[in-house]
Amino acid sequence: MPLKTKQLLVTLLFFCSTLLSTQLKSADFEPSEAGFNSWLNDFKQKAKNRGISETTLEQAFKDITFSRDVVKSDRKQPEFTQTFFQYFDRAVSKYRIKNGQKYYKKHKKLLDEVTQKYGIPGRYLVAFWGMETNYGSYTGNLPIIQSLATLAYDPRRSKFFTNELLSALTILDKGHVNLEQMKGSWAGAMGQCQFMPSNYLRYAVDGDGDGKINLWDSLPDVFHSAGNFLNQLGWQTTENWGREVILPKNFNYSLADNKTARPLKYWDDLGITLAGAKKLPHANMNARLLLVANYKGPAFLVYENFRVIKRWNNSDKYAIAVGHLADQIIHRPALSKSAPKNDKSLSRTQIKELQTYLNLLGYTTGKPDGIAGSQTRKALRAFQAKRDLPADGFPNLEILNILKKAIDGNIKIDS
Question: Rounded to whole angstroms, how far apart are CA atoms 390 and 294?
Answer without folding.
Answer: 9
